[in-house]
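FYI - complex with MTE, inputs then prediction.
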Amino acid sequence: MKDRTAKDQPDSSKPSRRRFLKSGAVLAGVLGACADSGNVSDSGPRTLGDIPSPYGQRSTYEKSVRYTHLSDTPEAGPSRTPLQDSYGILTPSSLHFERHHSGVPTIDPSQHHLLIHGMVDRPLVFTMEEILRLPSVSRIHFIECSGNSGREWTTPEPTVQRTHGMLGCSEWTGVSLSLLLSEVGVQSEAKWIIAEGADGCKLHRSIPMEKAMDNIVIAYAQNGEAIRPEQGYPLRLVVPGWEGNTHVKWLRRIKAVDQPYMGREETSKYTDLMPDGKARQFTFVMEAKSVITFPSGRDKLPGPGFYEITGLAWSGRGLIKSVEISIDGGQSWQEAQFQEPRHPVALTRFRLPWRWEGQEVTLRSRCIDETGYVQPSREALIEARGLNTRYHYNGITAWRVSSDGSVQNAYA
Ligand SMILES: Nc1nc2c(c(=O)[nH]1)N[C@H]1C(S)=C(S)[C@@H](COP(=O)(O)O)O[C@H]1N2
Ligand SMILES: [Mo]
C-alpha cells in the first residue's frame, strides 16, 4: 500500500468521497489479489548488503527512462519526462525532460561568468563564487516547453510521456534577478532584458523588464543539488509560468535594452500562426492544463476493480483551484482531490478513487486556475486557434479504456 500522510488524505467532508466510501469494499479487487502472509518465507540467507556509496543510484530493478526520438540533428532533439511513472509533484533531476538547440555544453564553474550590462549605471561581472555568496531563494515551479503536446493539434500521440513529457517540476534555488538588477542600477529607458546562454547557439530571449523585476530566479540548484548539465549547469533562468524557451540555460549574459531583439526564438520560432494568417508574438504565459497520468495511453488494466485515477495540473498564472474528472465521455464531471500543499505555478497532483466495472470508458481531466480560467476542450481550442501552430496546446486529453483494459489516446 502507498504510505499517505494525514495531509495527503482526501478531504472526507467532500460529498463525492463520502458517496464513494459508502459504496463499500472499495479495495476488494486490489486486496483480493494479494498473497496471504502465510506464504511469505523468512528463511532466506542472512548475508550482509552493500556498503554506503558516495553518490546514490536507484534500484537496478527500476527502468523508467526519458523518451527520445532523435532526428538527423540529435543535439537539437528533446527528451521527455516519464510522467506515467511519476509520483507526487517533483520530477527527479535525472528524469527531467531536456530541450537543447545545440547540445549540452561542458562548463567549468570556475571559468563561468555572468555579465549584466547595457542600459545600466554600473555594469557588473559575477563569478560563480560571488553569485553563491548572495542572498538566496528557493521555489517550486514547473517548466514546460511551449511545444509540449504540439502534435495533439493534428496527429495525437499514444502515451502521456509523448503527449505531455516536455514538462518537469523542481525546487529551484538561486538569486532573485531583481536583486542583481537593482545592484547594477537599471536606467529608466530600459524596457526589456536580453538573456543569453553560453551554448553553441548562444540561445537568447527578450523578456520585458516588468517580468525581470518581478519573480525571475537565476538558479544554480535543482532539487537540493547543483543543476545538472542538461538543465543549464552552472546557471539558468527560471521564469515562473512562462514558456520553457525563456528559461535560458548556461546563462552568461543579461543586457538591459530599450526594445526586444527579435531573435530567432521569438520570430521564426515560438510565435503562433493564427487562422487569419497573422502570428501572435511573445505569448509567454503557459495557460492552465491538466492530464491524467494513470491510467494513460498504453497502460493495460488487469481487470475490473479498484483503481486510483491520478494526474497533474498546472497553470502559469498561479494556483490550480480545481480539477474535475469525467468518466463518461465529458457528460458529467466530479471533483478530484489534491495533494497538499499546493504551490503556485507548480505541478499539482490530483487523485480520484475509481471502481472500473469492465466497460469501455473515456477518462478526461479539466482544470480551473485561480484566475477562473477553465482548460478548454480540444474542439474549442482548435476552433479558436486553428491548426497552423504547434505551440501552446492546452486542450483536454481523453484516454479511452477498452473493455479488455487497454488504454489509448481517444483522439489518436
Ligand atoms: N541556452 C539555452 N537555453 C535554453 C535552451 C537552449 O537550447 N539553450 N532551450 C530552451 C527550451 S526550448 C526549453 S523548453 C527549456 C528546457 O529546459 P530543460 O532542458 O531544463 O528541460 O530550456 C530553454 N533554455
Ligand atoms: Mo522549448
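Residues 275 and 384 are 8 Å apart (CA to CA). Residues 286-409 form a domain with the Immunoglobulin-like fold (CATH 2.60.40.650).
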